[in-house]
Amino acid sequence: MSRMKILKKNLADEVTWQYEGESVSRTENSVTIEALFNRDDMPFQEIVLKRNDRFVETFYTDKWYNIFEIYDRDDGKLKGWYCNIGKPAVVGDDFISYVDLALDLWVSANGKQTVLDEDELAELDLDDELKRQVYDGLQELQAVFKTKNPPR
Asked: What is the residue extent of each domain of the chain?
């Protein structure tokens, strides 16, 4: 395992959030890291995201999304999956960088899907090609989770 810096960027390629995690696996087109939630406890959908919840995050260099599998810090139970729609990740030896395109998908532990932040997506004023990539990524993710066989 190696330490990696994760850089979330906006459309202007500016870093809007960064944190570190431990690389746990790597393939030709993806990297999975473990990181601890580093914000104060906050209600989110039907759960509470807690400081030090364990996030198992998979970033893809060939897909328009990433997937964060979230586990409770206290009992280790799966809370659900938070998925960011974004440009394919750029992965280096010690960093992962991705451009967030606002639209998100929350999948609760029982499989219920909720699309988030469509209002933020509308504010981005994306060209037609980028919008198509965003919605294609969302549809691919939704299909993956409908199989009841989410990526691990």
From this structure: 3-146
